[in-house]
Amino acid sequence: MQIPARRRGPDRSAALAQYRRRARYYDQELALFEPIREQAIARLRLAPGATVLDVGCGTGLSFQLLHDRLGDSGRIVGIEQCPEMMAKACARVHQAHWHNVDLVCAPAATATIDTRADAALFHFTHDILREDAAIENVLTHLKPGARVVATGLQWAPPWMWPANGFVMAAALYSVTALESLARPWDKLERRLRYVEFDTALLGGIYILSGSYSPTETGH
Fold first, then answer.
1. What angle do CA 163, 168, 171 make, to 5 degrees?
2. Do residues 36 and 43 make contact, with C-beta atoms less than 8 angstroms apart?
C-alpha cells in the first residue's frame, strides 16, 4: 500500500493538535477497542502494590482496570502531553477518589518520571513508539524485568483489504507516522526479552508484550 509522502516520521506538534481536536469525543472513539485494552492490561501481570507507567494515557480510560489490579497500595503514573486529554484524566481521578494516580502533562520523551516502575503500558500510542527518545525515557524508569505491553494499528497482510482499509482510515485520523505501520512496534521490541505477539481485527491490530532488559541496546 502506498504511503502519502507528506507523512514521514512522528510529528509531536501535529499529534498534539490532533489530540486536542479529539479530546471531547475520545472516549467514544475508543469504545470499539476496549477488549484490546483489557487484554493488554491483563498481560501486564500486575500485582497489588506495583507501580505502572501508563504512557500516552489520554483521558485515563485504563485507570480503572489498572487500579483494580494494583489496589490502593499500588501506583499509576499517567503520562500525556495533551492538556485537554489530561484535564479529562484528572477529572476521572478526582471523581473516583483515587489517591494513588499521579499525572504528568508532558511528552513521553521529556516527561519527568520520579520512580522505577514494575510495568509500562503503551495502548494505541503509535507516534510515541516511533520516537527513540520517548522509548528511552520510559524504559530508563523501569525496573529490570518489568513487564511492557504495547498495542496499536498495523498493516494486516495485503489480502486482508477490509482490515487495511480500516487501518488506513483510523491512522489518517490518529497518527502522524504512517510510513512505519508495517512494523510499528519494532523499536520497542528490540529492547525487550521473552516477546509475545498477537493480532486482532484480521491482523490490523497488534498486541506485543515482553520483559524489559537493560542489556538490550536496541541495535
1. 120
2. no
Q: What is the DSSP letter of 190?
A: T
Query: pLDDT tens digits, residue range 64-100?
Result: 999 999 999 999 999 999 999 999 999 999 999 999 9
Residue 19's pLDDT is what?
61
Q: Other CB atoms closer than 10 Å to residue 12's CB: what's the count?
A: 17
Q: Which residues contact 100 (CB under 8 A, 6 or more apart)?
A: 67, 70, 72, 73, 74, 75, 76
CATH of residue 44's domain is 3.40.50.150
What single string gives the DSSP state of each residue in 22-35?
HGGGHHHHTGGGHH
The residues that bridge with 210 in the sheet, in sequence order, are 148
CA dist 96 and 169 (Å) reads 34
What is the tally of structural domains in the chain? 1
Cβ proximity of 108 and 79 under 8 Å: yes
Joined together, the cell numbers standing for residue 44 give 501486564
